[in-house]
Request: fold
Amino acid sequence: ETGVTQSPTHLIKTRGQQVTLRCSSQSGHNTVSWYQQALGQGPQFIFQYYREEENGRGNFPPRFSGLQFPNYSSELNVNALELDDSALYLCASSSARGNEQFFGPGTRLTVL
Amino acid sequence: KNEVEQSPQNLTAQEGEFITINCSYSVGISALHWLQQHPGGGIVSLFMLSSGKKKHGRLIATINIQEKHSSLHITASHPRDSAVYICAVRATGTASKLTFGTGTRLQVTL
Reply:
């Protein structure tokens, strides 16, 4: 059984660019949640995907968007990057919407 | 005021000490999670609980739903326990969203 993986591990972008982060769910999991963790803060919920549909969204603007694929892997897309988007982006998968979540190692995004 | 508050923010202990980290929350919840985050970012789920008490090795988590309070205890602490411990809650009626505390940074010294 493979755990949750994320790619890339680190990424540097400049303001105004677009970025795509990827997450592979743990085997057998159909739900993926994305979180943003700024330095020194707890993670903030961005959104969740369940069976390829968005299932809940936190207080993030529309330039944060996502996708979930038939194999339940997921992407987080951020358009028009801002300096404040610099953070660790975590994804977590679970076997159902309310079940225990298993986290990936994160992607550290730096926006210059 | 944050929906999830943790105390203390920072904690230093000597190897072997008994450690308690507290979490208070202000909303009705269906579940509470304790998570461990090591330097570099990876998060490991320690417990998910909705009532009572759970134990795994040297870790014990308790929750009091009426008082909206949970504690994480570490017995016989060890330097490898050094990490940030984060409490997160799933509010009632929200199957998807976890709300996190800001974490407790634990340093266990020899």
